[in-house]
Hints:
The protein has about 240 residues and is α/β, with parallel strands linked by helices. It contains eight helices and eleven strands. The protein has helices at about 30-45, 65-70, 75-95, 120-125, 145-155, 190-195, 200-210, 225-230, and strands at about 10-15, 50-55, 100-105, 115, 130-135, 160-165, 170, 185, 185-190, 215-220, 235-240. Helix 1 (about 30-45) links the parallel strand 1 (about 10-15) and strand 2. It is globular.
Amino acid sequence: MSNANPRGYSRILVKLSGEVLLGQTDYGIDPPVLKRVASEIQEIATVGIQVAVVIGGGNIFRGAGLARDGMDRVTADHMGMLATVMNALAMQDAIESLGLHARVMSAIRINQVCEDYIRRRAVRHLEKGRVVIFAAGTGNPFFTTDTAASLRAVEINADVLFKATKVNGIFSDDPLRNPGATRYRELTFDKVLADRLNVMDATAIVMCRDNRLPVKVFNLTTPGDLVRIVRGEDVGTTVTVGPS
């Protein structure tokens, strides 16, 4: 990975949706996809960048969807949090099979399978070169894992938040329905909010904006794009506060 870190990142957070892990399956985790994502995280970590990860649980349960179908929202969200723990444990196993050390830290207490989230301990793991995987969202119902990713990124003083999606960045329209949609290379948080571009929920966007945390949106279904965007190539969309 020549010129592996031209941006000079020291610490990053990668937000993965649970749906990304589906691959070609209808439910659960597609092992080849899990292994590929783990190998890209390994490639980044081995050049000295500290890597944290937040994973959603939509490939197993989506709390909001269950609530719409009549389940109590708090119960549904707790089920969704547990789904993220399952995904985090799978990612930990995949990363460690490649020779890296990883730690899962959960926002809800589940001590027999992973650590509790403690900010200072998480930072110490990162400083020791371990990949830290944050599970269970914020630990509270009614908050998305996008908000959890923004919160954790701010708490650990990450340089940037990488938001993985199924398309190459943010577009003027849905590129899956409109092939003529234009990809934005750069946007401001205020434009994302004003135009309701829906790349992350509004709470997450506001948190990033208020803490001047850049967000880079990219397509994780394209092999190698995570490495390319970290390398600084023209991939995806960068969202910032904009000119002062």
